[in-house]
Amino acid sequence: MLTPAVEVTTVAHSIQLSVAPVFLLSGIGVFLGVLTNRLARIVDRAQPLTERLKTATEIEVIDLRERLIWLAQRGRHINLAITLSTVAALLVAVVVALLFASNFVPFELGVPVATLFILSMLSLVGALLAFLVEVRIATRTIRIGPPPESSHQPAR
Question: What b/e sequence results for 119-153 when a residue is b if at least 16 CB atoms lie within 10 Å of its CB, and e otherwise?
């Protein structure tokens, strides 16, 4: 009769251990939503500029290409942030599974769990850094009002 109670207690303890990483997964999911929205905005801004290239004057072409280069750089950084965030989420999901399974398998899973968690945090740090670079590029290239007549460089 005591065996089922011990098993339920073991399961409950495993669930408790898994809750904190699940909150982390939720946060990464929200961050991925922010990143995908920024990527969509970059694509939405690039498409009309690409279309305008077809009918632009020589001076406008220089400006449009420069703006497209900045958007491409932003897109690469956001794509990197999305990739690293997804890797972090996958690693955290594996950590949750291993934490839960650690009470039911005869193997010591402490080192793999710690290693995967460290890798997930490193991946998340990389994603945040890529996001920071993208935001810096976006703020460096903000243009309010008409472009200057004599210069074709984005505002810095």
Answer: bbeebbebbeebbebbeebbeebeeeeeeeeeeee
